[in-house]
Structures are given as structure tokens and as C-alpha cells.
């Protein structure tokens, strides 16, 4: 059988004890709180009666804590700190707007994550919750608030707008690039072409050279574009630089450009939302994404 709960003094009485200890007298505590001297005295007395011991030594110039009072006050102040921290955390979690955004892993690694702190910062702070996946999240059904999709646009049952265009040119590891110095387009295309799930970029670049590209057994396909770049670094063939998406990666890598010809990619990254999206925090994140692209000169 559970023991009956012991009645606790009101929090206001405990706060008054802390106030008296802080000011050193009932009169000063009364002036600071707007209560009467008598009300302060009654509140302190109620806590002392509940504890069964004196918390303060009364003297002519005010009061001072007894040994029991010092120990008790330390526990009470710690308890108030715990309550305040819990309240702050709850208030912040309820107050901070959150926006869920779905992106493919390569876009997250190459572009989004390094910009995430600045995208979240501002007035108001927005908690941007990133989901990385290769499938297209259903924004219309509320799976996420924003999806960044790679393609030509014109998707049905959603609203979309362009975000990040791309320019393409081929590159390779230093060893492969050295072998290709002065090589013709035919010599270059004799090597395996590295690509992700879509050949559109390579078709566009080859088309600019007057070459019609068809799938070839020797080419290598990887689901994620960062793996395409890693394969090029390993000397497995030619990859396309997709700028500005891969700019930061290319600066850190040893990949070498192997042709002066560059083309605009027919595909781009687009912002996709549910139709007639009006939530201020979602619109704010969209504006911040667009500003980040504009800041990079694209």
C-alpha cells in the first residue's frame, strides 16, 4: 500500500523563503515583492512549521540562515533551477517553428549541410529537419514540408520553382587526365563514363560535341553523385562536374578538368511544396534557400 502523499507548502511560500535569504530581511523582501511584512512573515513561518525547524535567525538588523536553512535553501534553489530548465526547454520546443525538408544524400552532403546553420539562423530561428532519401517524398500528403527534386519540373499536384541550375564539364583523376592530354572527343568517350541514375547530363555534353550517346556496357552507374565523384578520383573513368553543386568538393579533390567544353544541364534542383503552401515558416525557408543560391552568384 502506497504511503499517503505529504502535503507540500505552496511554491509561493518557498519562493518567499529564497527572497528573504537573498535580501537578508523580511522588510527588504516585502519591498521587493510588493507584499506586506506580515505576509512575508506568515509565508516563512508556514514553511518552518512544515519542516519543523527554524530557517532563519532573527536579529535586530535582519535575518540570517540557520544551518538547516542553508541546506534546505540549497535544495530548493536547485529544484527551482530544474523547473526553470524544463520550462525553458518546453517553451522553446513549442515556440521554435520547424520545417521538414527532403533531399537526396548528395545534395545534402555537397550543398545543404554546410549552409544549414545559416539557413536556420535569423528572425525567427527555424529548426530545419533534413531527411535524406532517394525516393520522392510526398509533399502533397504532408510527409515533408519541402522537397528538393532534381529534374525538369512540371510535376503534377504540387507547386514547384527552380532553385539551382547546373553547368557540366568532364573531369578525371590526374593519372587519367594525363593520358587524355590532347585527346579527341572520341578518345575521351572510349573511357568508361561515370554517372548516377540519369544519363541526361552526359547526353547533353556529348550532344554539344555532335555525338549521340547511348547506354554502354563499359559505363559505370552509381546511385549517389558523391560516389560518382569518388569513382572518378579512383581512376575508374570520366565524371561530369556539376557546378555549383560540386564546387566545394572539387576544390578539395585532385580531379582535373579534361575539356574546355561545358554545357548547361537540362535538369536542375527545384523546390517542391504542397499546392498553395502558405505557412510563414515554410515560405521563409524557401526564401532563405533562394537567397543562399543568389549569394553564390547563380
TrEMBL record:
The keyword DNA-binding applies. One of its GO terms (molecular function) is sequence-specific DNA binding. It comes from the Bacteria. Pfam families: HTH_1, LysR_substrate. GO terms for biological process: DNA-templated transcription. The keyword DNA-binding applies. Residues 9-66 form the HTH lysR-type domain. InterPro entries: LysR-type_TF_proteobact-type (IPR058163), LysR_HTH_N (IPR000847), LysR_subst-bd (IPR005119), WH-like_DNA-bd_sf (IPR036388), WH_DNA-bd_sf (IPR036390). SUPFAM superfamilies: Periplasmic binding protein-like II, Winged helix' DNA-binding domain. Keywords: DNA-binding, Transcription, Transcription regulation. Belongs to the LysR transcriptional regulatory family. This is LysR family transcriptional regulator. It comes from Pandoraea pneumonica. The lineage of its organism: Bacteria, Pseudomonadati, Pseudomonadota, Betaproteobacteria, Burkholderiales.
Amino acid at each position: 500500500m502506497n504511503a499517503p502523499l505529504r502535503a507540500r507548502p505552496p511554491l509561493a511560500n518557498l519562493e518567499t523563503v529564497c527572497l528573504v535569504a537573498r535580501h537578508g530581511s523580511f522588510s527588504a523582501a516585502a519591498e521587493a515583492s510588493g507584499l506586506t511584512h506580515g505576509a512575508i512573515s506568515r509565508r516563512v513561518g508556514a514553511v518552518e512549521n512544515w519542516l519543523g525547524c527554524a530557517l532563519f535567525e532573527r536579529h535586530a538588523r535582519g535575518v540570517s540562515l540557520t544551518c538547516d536553512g542553508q541546506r534546505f535553501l540549497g535544495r530548493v534553489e536547485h529544484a527551482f533551477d530544474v523547473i526553470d530548465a524544463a520550462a525553458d526547454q518546453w517553451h522553446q520546443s513549442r515556440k521554435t517553428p520547424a520545417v521538414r525538408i527532403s533531399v537526396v544524400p548528395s545534395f545534402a552532403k555537397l550543398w545543404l549541410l554546410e549552409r544549414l546553420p545559416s539557413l536556420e539562423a535569423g528572425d525567427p530561428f527555424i529548426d530545419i529537419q533534413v531527411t535524406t532519401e532517394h525516393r520522392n517524398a510526398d509533399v502533397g500528403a504532408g510527409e515533408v514540408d519541402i522537397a528538393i527534386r532534381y529534374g525538369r519540373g512540371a510535376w503534377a499536384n504540387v507547386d514547384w520553382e527552380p532553385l539551382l541550375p547546373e553547368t557540366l564539364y568532364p573531369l578525371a583523376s590526374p593519372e587519367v587526365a594525363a593520358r587524355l592530354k590532347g585527346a579527341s572527343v572520341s578518345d575521351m568517350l572510349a573511357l568508361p563514363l561515370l554517372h548516377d541514375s540519369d544519363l541526361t547530363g552526359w547526353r547533353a555534353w556529348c550532344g554539344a560535341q555532335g555525338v549521340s550517346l547511348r547506354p554502354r556496357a563499359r559505363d559505370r552507374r552509381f546511385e549517389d553523385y558523391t560516389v560518382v565523384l569518388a569513382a572518378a578520383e579512383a581512376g575508374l573513368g570520366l565524371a561530369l562536374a556539376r557546378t555549383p553543386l560540386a564546387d566545394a568538393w572539387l576544390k578539395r579533390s585532385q580531379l582535373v578538368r579534361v575539356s574546355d567544353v561545358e554545357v548547361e544541364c537540362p535538369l536542375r534542383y527545384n523546390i517542391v511544396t504542397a499546392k498553395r503552401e502558405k505557412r510563414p515558416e515554410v515560405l521563409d525557408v524557401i526564401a532563405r534557400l533562394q537567397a543562399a543560391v543568389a549569394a553564390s552568384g547563380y
